[in-house]
Write a structure and sequence with these properties.
It contains 6 helices and 14 strands. By secondary structure, the chain is of the alpha/beta class. It has one domain: 3-Layer(aba) Sandwich (Rossmann fold), CATH 3.40.50.10300. α1 crosses α6. The longest helix is centred in the C-terminal third of the chain and has 15 residues. The mean pLDDT is 94. The structure holds cytidine-5'-monophosphate. Cytidine-5'-monophosphate binds next to α3 and β9.
Length: 217
């Protein structure tokens, strides 16, 4: 039995990496597996939410009852999220969005035998979470901060910079790619370390915390 702490709430969530094309067959991506985001989508659905999962390229099946929108690049993810953000009650940005995309992506496959080493020019991607957080009347926003050190200081700084009520900190040596994770929640009340556990158990705890903060308990 799962208490329906998010009954009827509309949840929008991003997960996975993005893929930024260099040419039709190559690109820049990262090692996000999507597992944490998918676990949260599943937990929120089990808690009664109506869940839309905007997913970068991952090797995972959508959890039962979750609407999945597949995207590839950060710009695709940005468009898919902005089209749905104003009708969501809660937005959780779990995706590891590339900070930069290739400005001069090639229409045809780059060839080694033409004109030396290619120069890859980068341009900054939009910050999806900060943009949703800045919407008047937007959803309750939750971010993730994957850090390799100084978790509390960096996570709280990120929370204030993006103007979001809740950020989930994780030390990347604990989480990326694995089944288990170690999470600390940071909000206006301070820090709430969760007991290290499976991503699915942590997802349920995070959903409960969000339900409390949004008063739907
Ligand atoms: O700024 P940084 O990438 O460290 O922040 C991480 C948080 O911001 C995550 O919740 C991530 O999903 C979100 N983010 C985003 N769009 C970006 C970069 C990060 O939504 N372009």
């Amino acid at each position: 039995f799962v208490p329906k702490v998010l009954a009827g709430r509309r949840l929008l969530i991003t997960a996975g990496p993005t893929f930024e094309a260099i040419d039709p067959v190559r690109g820049i991506t990262n090692l996000s597996s999507g597992r944490m985001g998918y676990a949260i989508a599943r937990a929120a659905r089990q808690a009664g939410a109506e869940v839309t999962l905007v997913s970068g390229p991952v090797a995972l099946a959508a959890p039962p009852g979750v609407e999945r929108i597949d995207v590839r690049s950060a710009l695709d993810m940005h468009a898919a999220v902005m089209a749905r953000a104003t009708t969501a009650d809660i937005f959780i940005a779990v995706a590891a969005v590339a900070d930069y995309r290739v400005a001069n992506a090639a229409e045809h496959k780059l060839k080694k035998d033409h004109g030396g080493v290619p120069a890859i020019e980068l341009v900054e991607n939009p910050d999806i979470l900060a943009e949703v957080a800045a919407l008047a009347d937007g959803p309750f926003c939750v971010g993730f901060a994957a850090e390799s050190q100084n978790l509390e200081a960096y996570a709280q700084a990120k929370r204030h910079k993006k103007k979001i009520p809740l950020i989930v900190g994780n030390l990347i040596q604990d989480g990326f790619g694995g089944d288990d994770n170690r999470l600390v929640l940071f909000d206006d009340q301070g820090s709430h370390p969760l007991t290290p556990a499976s991503k699915s158990a942590l997802a349920t705890q995070l959903v409960d915390h969000i339900a409390k903060l949004t008063g739907s308990h």
